[in-house]
Amino acid sequence: MAKAIGIAPTRMELLKLRQRVSLAQKGHDLLREKMDALVIEFFGIVRSIGEVRVKTMQQLSSAYRALSICFAMQGTIETYQAAREARKDVEVDISTRHVMGILVPVMEAKPVERHALARGYSVYATSSALDEASREFEKALEILIKLAELEGGARAIALELEKTKRRVNALEYVILPSLKSMVKFISMRLDEMERENFSRLKRIKAMLEARE
Amino acid sequence: MSTDRILQFELARLNAHLPEQRITLKDALSSPSPHVVTKEGSRHKFERGELEFLSKMTPADEWDKLRLPILIAINPKLGRGAAEITGEAEVKVISQVLGKTCRDREMVIYRPEIAVVRAKLPTTTQYFFMVG
Fold first, then answer.
1. Domain regions of chain A by residue span
2. Would the CB atoms of A97 and B7 count as touching at under 8 Å?
3. Given a cut of 70, is residue A3 above it in pLDDT?
4. 20 to 30 Å CA-CA from A74: which of A2, A102, A123, A142?
5. How far is residue B46's CA from residue B113's CA, in Å, rounded to a whole number?
């Protein structure tokens, strides 16, 4: 049995194993707490994603409606021409925040919605439908930036959650049971050795008494 | 022994996101880019909106007592899903967020309450795992 498990049934080994069990148990408890906290974070962010996605779809649908009106009123080629002339720069400040060691992106966009004159195309050569479509798309872009931030965060948390869950399961179902069975085996083997020793001593004593 | 080493590494990494030094609400409000530097050297930024929310809840004379980020200390000894908040100003803020009354320097909160706190203060609170 000792050979099959690959450990020497000694007191020293038993002490080492008990230390390993306590470390593994502590690690398991803490990692499980981390997993619970990650689940809280993940569901919080998923709820926000749902809300922001609904807003995004509504905004994009009204933006595309405005664009269709613009195409109809101003003409497709003119609209494309104005789009080529428009300024396309959006300033986004990307930083990070920590959620239990996971870097979650934080995106802060400077106001995307601009004045018609600041967009870059000629206001004299274009219709008001283009201004309306631009405004709607600028609003949509703001929501899309928020959605990107949330989805990036959710992906990072989900990856960490998967890793942590795998570790917790490995500790709970593989490492801790095997360590505990080793401890049990060594303590039973030591008890058995003690009993053998005791009966041996009794037998020797009986033999010595018989000889006298 | 490699599993032990991996485990020790994991335990050491659990609190790597904590700041080297916490800053007070007063300092955070006066800073143009309120942030703290974490133990692993990266920056953790506080959202301006959250700081303003905290400043409305805390009397101005206590701004220099409230240290950020507020630590949600997770101690497995308290049981699964329980966490501890320490510090007078911190306890006041968290109890206001949760709509509770607590006058101690320490308070214990539970998983649904942690979710509420984290939803309202995602950048100004941090988890702290009590390893030792």
1. 2-205
2. no
3. no
4. A142
5. 21
Cβ pair B45:A95 closer than 8 A: yes
Highest CATH level, class, for A2-205: mainly alpha
Q: How many structural domains is chain B composed of?
A: 1
Q: Domain span at residue B124?
A: 2-129
Chain B neighbors of A153, CB-CB under 8 A: none
Give the closest of B11, B17, B76 to A101, CB-based.
Answer: B17
- State whether B129 and A34 contact (CB < 8 Å): yes
**pTM for the model:** 0.82
Residues on chain A touching B12 (C-beta within 8 angstroms)? none
The burial of A31, by beta-carbon neighbours within 10 Å (0-12 exposed, 13-18 middle, 19 or more buried), is given as buried
Residue ranges in B1-132 assigned as alpha helix (H): 2-13, 25-30, 48-57, 88-98, 111-120
Q: What is the ipTM of this complex?
A: 0.85
